[in-house]
Amino acid sequence: IAQYDFEVERVADGIQAIRRCLESQPDILILDLMLPGADGFEVCRQVRQQFTGSILMLTASEDDMDHVAGIESGADDYLIKPIHPRVLLAHIRLLLRKQGSAGNVGPQSPSEGQDNWLRIGRLSVHPIQRRVELDDTEIELTPSEFDILHLLLKHAEEVVSREQLFRNIRGIEYDGLDRSIDVKVVALRKKLKDSSTRPRRIITVRGKGYLLVRDSW
C-alpha cells in the first residue's frame, strides 16, 4: 500500500465504519457486505448523503441482486472477490480520477518527451515511427501487435476490454467469440519478455480484457 502512496485504515465493524468514515472523510471507502453491526448496504446508505468520497463494494457475493442493491445504496463501483490486486488498484485510481483526487496516487499515463517517445520504465514506444524499445533493444512487432501495445500503454493500469481492442484495432464490434486479439496478446507477451503462464506486464482480467502494469517494466 505504501508504495502507491495510500494511507489505509481498516475497520472490522459496520457501526464503527460509519462513524470513522464520516469523521475522517477518506477519498475512498471500500466495503465488504458481510460486516458485524451493520452490513455493507447499511453502511453505504448511512454515509452516502454526508460522505464526499467514492464508495467501492468489494465482496465475494456473485448474486446479481446484491450487485443491484449495492449500486442503488449509493456505491460508485462493485467488484467480486477474488480479484487481482492490479485490477483493484485500477478501479481505485479510476474512482479517484473521477473525483479529482488522482494527484494523490502519482502519474497515471506514460511520460512523453519532446522526442515523442512514450516511456514507462524501460519500455519506450514511438507512436509516429511505430517503434518499440525494451531495455534499449528494438523489438519488432507486427502492425496489430504494435496497435495493441500502444492502446494498452495509453491506458496503463486501466482494464482495456476486448470490445475496445476490437473497435480500435480492427474497426469492428466484438462478437464474443473471436479470439484473434487473445492470440496476438500471447505473441506480444513473448516478444516483450513476459511470462506466458504467469504474466506480470500484460495481465488478463478474466471476463474483462487486459491491463498493462506500470511498474513491471
Produce the secondary structure layout.
Layout: H1 14-24, E1 28-31, H2 40-48, E2 54-59, H3 64-73, E3 77-80, H4 85-98, E4 111-112, E5 118-120, E6 123-126, E7 131-134, E8 137-138, H5 143-154, E9 160-161, H6 162-170, H7 180-191, E10 202-205, E11 209-212
Parallel strand pairs: 1-2, 2-3
Antiparallel strand pairs: 4-5, 5-6, 6-7, 7-8, 9-11, 10-11
Give a quick precis of the structure.
The protein is an alpha+beta fold and 217 residues long. The protein is 35% helix and 18% strand. Mean pLDDT is 84; it is low at 101-108.
Write a structural description.
- The protein is 35% helix and 18% strand.
- Strands 4-5-6-7-8 form a 5-stranded antiparallel β-sheet, with helices on one face.
- By secondary structure, the protein is α+β, with helices and mostly antiparallel strands.
- α5 crosses α6.
